[in-house]
Design goal:
The protein is mostly helical. It folds into two domains: 3-115; 120-277, Intergrase catalytic core (hpI Integrase, Chain A, Orthogonal Bundle), CATH 1.10.443. The chain is built from 13 helices and three strands; from the N terminus they run H-H-H-H-H-H-H-H-E-E-E-H-H-H-H-H. It has a three-stranded antiparallel β-sheet. The longest helix is centred in the N-terminal third of the chain and has 20 residues, at 79-98. It is elongated and about 85 Å long. It starts with a helix and ends in a 17-residue tail after the last helix. GO terms for molecular function: DNA binding.
Length: 294
């Protein structure tokens, strides 16, 4: 098909005609899943563009961003679908350019959203955290707050040793970083430490949770606390997200939140910022800080 004929199909908004013309230039082999998915994604894009009055032949600079916004509204809980459909639209423009039908590509400068599952997890609410603490014993309260206030990962909790804690300074030493505690976590750790015979005066040695050998056991322990508190179970990361929400609400500093959670990139903080923007964050007077001697 000639360039002019393909352009005429775009002008006439002939979706199936355009697809027939470019299908051989799309990724995949005839009839396989990759090709079928690309054709389907291109069909969705073309119908959206034509229905919304967008010009595919001479696209506005904002077309890519507008389509991304449409996909996010259509797939709010499945970022992989957003990324895949966006890739299909990019592939369509590559095919159109290769056949000489268009010159501009509205997706060239568009940043694709991340499909990191960590960015799309929920966070425990403040009310849910309080229910967990109310129904938990000393050990379980310390466990919950290490995730919800200190923002430790499951593996970090499983490996945590009493010697990692500096009670007088109010900090935890975790993987080379110092994690300050707030009032609630500091009190919970002291209460649990005393129940285990570990005192501030003499310190301690050995694992904080000797029965939790790995991340799986940490999650199982959280699951049991959720059952007793009648709180819907979410992954351990949802506790870390809660910690991030608290810190971001208090500091409004993404870099500081990343350091606090032990993240090497700001990418994972984006979920937390979006959550704050949606109003999920709640103010707390239990600011993470180095505690004075109790």
């Amino acid at each position: 098909m000639s360039e002019s004929e393909l352009r005429q199909l775009l002008i006439k908004q002939d979706v199936e005609g355009v697809l027939n013309a470019v299908e051989s230039s799309l990724p995949g082999q005839p009839g396989n899943a990759t090709r079928r998915n690309n054709v389907s994604g291109c069909r969705i894009f073309l119908r959206w563009a034509f229905d919304s009055g967008q010009s595919v032949l001479s696209p506005a600079e904002t077309l890519g961003a507008a389509y991304l916004a449409f996909l996010k509204r259509k797939h709010p809980d499945t970022p992989a679908s957003v990324i895949n459909r966006l890739a299909h639209a990019r592939n369509l423009y590559t095919a159109l350019r290769d056949q000489g039908a268009v010159a501009a590509d509205p997706f060239t400068q568009l940043d694709a959203p991340s499909n990191d599952p960590a960015l799309h997890k929920e966070a425990y609410t403040e009310a849910e955290i309080q229910r967990l603490l109310t129904h938990g014993n000393a050990r379980e309260q310390a466990l919950v707050l290490l995730g919800a206030h200190a923002g430790l990962t499951g593996p970090e909790v499983a490996k945590l040793n009493w010697r990692d804690m500096q009670f007088e300074q109010g900090v935890l030493s975790v993987r080379g970083r110092e994690v300050p505690t707030g009032t609630a976590l500091h009190a919970a750790l002291q209460h649990y430490a005393h129940s285990q015979g570990v005192t501030q005066l003499f310190g301690g040695e050995g694992k904080v949770f000797p029965e939790l050998d790995n991340d799986h056991m940490v999650r199982a322990a959280l699951f049991r606390v959720c059952l007793s508190g009648n709180v819907p179970y979410r992954a351990w990361r949802a506790l870390r997200n809660h910690a991030g929400l608290r810190m971001l609400n208090l500091t409004h500093d993404e870099q500081r939140v990343a350091q606090y959670l032990g993240l090497s990139t700001l990418k994972a903080v984006k979920f937390i910022q979006r959550a704050v923007d949606r109003g999920m964050g709640q103010e707390s007077d239990d600011t993470p800080h180095k505690m004075s001697k109790p």
